[in-house]
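Title: Prediction job returns without error message
Component: structure pipeline
Severity: low
Priority: P3
Assignee: unassigned

Description:
Job completed but the reporter wants confirmation the result is attached to the right record. Sequence as submitted:
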Amino acid sequence: MSDVFSTTVACADCTAHRQDLEACGHRVLECSDDPTLPGYCTIRYTRPVAMADGGPAPLAATQALAARAIVNIFETGEVRGDYSAVTLLPGDTGRLTYGRAQTTLGSGNLHLLVSRYCAMAGARFGARLRPWLPALATRSPAADADQKLHNLLRASADDPVMRDVQDAFFDELFWEPAARSASRLGIRSPLGTAVVYDSWVHGSWTPLRDRTNASGTINGLGEHDWVQRYVRNRREWLATHGNALLRATVYRMDAFQRLIDQEAWGLQLPLVVRGHEISLGTLSALPPNCYDGPQPGSRPLGVQSPLQRGLDVRLVQLALSDQGCDVRADGIYGNASARFIRAFQRSSELPETGMADAALIQRLLALGD
């Protein structure tokens, strides 16, 4: 059976959003009131079927990467996106959010993403995440609050399998339908496509597209003029929104307006967006807050200057989390990690050094096996 996605929208926008999904090739399965959000409904739909006309012409690879990078910067402050990002903001209807494009527990898509990862051969943390699938499926409040789950999600980003799953998942959920929407509307430029993509990720593309069309269509105005009007309309909508979290995101439209002012319609590299360099170098770098080494036990761990970072630190922190320590598995060995190591040494009748040598690391990791 095809993957079933879901999205939560204001009831007033439901009909327009369903029509847009269907026009992009999705099959809408149902729409139901969201019991946790009065005035909102949840639309369930499958991924797009093949389009008869083959879909939009793809952008050049670097242009598509640049467009994604702009939205990555908006979402997580990183060019490659922060695959390990775990956030929970007060008042955010999405509740617990995770990953490069911040998929949410509230929409049901976090469950779908983690399920897909757990089903992949070679998923390093699949067996440890699998017991959480029922809670994610029911959008349990326990998932919002459990630090062990949050640490598992952070650690999973070190696994290239999870990063590949996130890339494919977010492309299916956001990039592909956004590219089809842009092409169907007559948007051909990489920058214009990036604007549409941002709205698919951020929400409310359909009503703001229609609001902009009310003052003139692309056929009448031309693509560049229409996109500028859309950016202005969306900025006004964000700036006056009743949700303070959305009001704080007007910077997204300000960043697009700067690119428009620079005539960067082709997204030629390098670019600078909100102080971040988008270039071939930054696009090919290891994503931030992801670690591919050193291997556990290959070095002793202790508080140093600069602080030690890496896969070995993350796995030690994850093992401490499994033992009930309230530690954040961020892959950085600081004073909090040393304090929990001392507590573990004390409980194990070992010298309380706060240092983790190869033997102690092996002992900790064995407890999680």
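Comment from assignee: result matches the submitted record. The longest strand covers residues 4-10.
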